[in-house]
Amino acid sequence: MRRDGLTAVTRTARPALVVYGAGNIGRGIVSLLFSRAGYRLLFYRRDRTALLDMQARGGYAVRLQGGAPEESVPIVDFGVLTDREALLDALTDCDLAACCLYPAAFAQAAETLAEACRRRAVPLNVLLCCNEPEGAELLRRAAEQALPPEERSGALSRLRVIPSIVYSAGFPSPDGGPYDVTVSANGYIEAERGAFSGSVPQVPGLRPVDGVNARLCRKLYLGNLFHTYAALLGAERGYETMAQCYADPALRRLVEEAFSQSEDALLSAWSFDPEEHLRWRTMMLDKMDHPSGDRIERVLRDLPRKLRREDRLIGPALLCVRQGLPCGRLADAAALALERLGREQPDFGRALREGPAAAVGTACGLSAGDAAQQTLIEQIVRRLRQRRSEC
């Protein structure tokens, strides 16, 4: 597929998966599931030096945490795509792609995907593995904007963005090599059944479902919420790992209260099968009894993204306000995150002290012109002031 010979990617009879974004999720659960299913992996990331180093080292290991016994799976049969033309060639020929990027990178990715679909004769299924509400529509709109108006209908008809949910840990393996990653032994990916062109790939661990957006909000507003809140509380107590957080009974009680507040609002807004939801709920809360070795510092990276209106901290709190339900514990989670962000960014910290309502609104994308959003701003500011008075 390469024209310049920079890296050798041999075309074989095996299906090919382009992993667009070779971070912890792309190298982790995505690559594990598809390599086990017989796919040839083709990695792309902007840091070509890292890709070439990973290749020169002969690959990396995926550690499966939570199994009995724990297992380490080598990932050694793959190709690397070290420039945009190589990526375009691979996307033009591949059987499937997995986009493991956050929305900040969508514009550049959409331009490349749109060009690849312009070249393709058949549709390209792209699993969107970023756990972003409405992310598939965001990526598709970005692809539309990247194309000339006269080419949009044809190319976009061949771009199938598949909303997906990743259920797995994904973090650098402690004491591992630079590219080794730890995932959940029982990790899996849910993908919107009706979004595929053609049949759903037969990959163990890839589960076709209906209603991914509601399920994604459930994961963010419950699973990601309690994990992030636990990390914030643990950091305040001087803990370093998530295992330490969940071993603290008082901390767990606070996290469970936040989970319950968010769950009440979620179930008022969306309908889930009661038996399925009970199984899902049990699985999520069981993570507290079997915590990963993840470090708090990693869980709390990128707080600006996690404080957005649609994300895990503000999203469920705003849903509670709109439903007329209590959200005191969720407001506390938001306040903790904002305080931490203020320490990381001194200018924001000063704004938070001098004009807390405006700072909260800006950081969380909340508008005083919306009654529910204004109410939430007031609740968070109240909690910030309470916390200062308690110090």
Question: What is the residue-mean pLDDT, rounded to a whole number?
Answer: 93
**Terminus-to-terminus distance:** 61 Å
Count, helices: 17
Which CATH class of the largest domain?
A: Alpha Beta
How would the global form be characterised?
Answer: globular
Question: How would you portray this structure in words?
Answer:
The chain is of the alpha/beta class and 391 residues long. Helices cover 51% and strands 15% of the residues. The protein has helices spanning 24-36, 48-56, 84-93, 106-119, 135-146, 152-156, 212-236, 242-246, 249-269, 274-286, 296-299, 303-306, 314-323, 328-344, 346-354, 356-364, 371-390; strands at 16-20, 40-44, 60-65, 71-75, 78-81, 96-99, 124-128, 159-167, 170-172, 181-184, 188-192, 206-209. It has an 8-stranded mixed β-sheet, with helices on both faces. It has a 4-stranded mixed β-sheet with strand order 4-3-10-9, covered by helices on one side. α4 links the parallel β6 (96-99) and β7 (124-128). Mean pLDDT is 93; it is low at 1-11.
Give the topology.
Blueprint lengths: L15 E5 L3 H13 L3 E5 L3 H9 L3 E6 L5 E5 L2 E4 L2 H10 L2 E4 L6 H14 L4 E5 L6 H12 L5 H5 L2 E9 L2 E3 L8 E4 L3 E5 L13 E4 L2 H25 L5 H5 L2 H21 L4 H13 L9 H4 L3 H4 L7 H10 L4 H17 L1 H9 L1 H9 L6 H20 L1
Parallel strand pairs: 1-2, 1-6, 2-5, 3-10, 6-7, 7-8, 11-12
Antiparallel strand pairs: 3-4, 8-11, 9-10
Short description:
This protein is 51% helix and 15% strand. With 391 residues, it is of the alpha/beta class. It has 2 domains: 16-210, Rossmann fold (3-Layer(aba) Sandwich), CATH 3.40.50.720; 214-390, N-(1-d-carboxylethyl)-l-norvaline Dehydrogenase, domain 2.
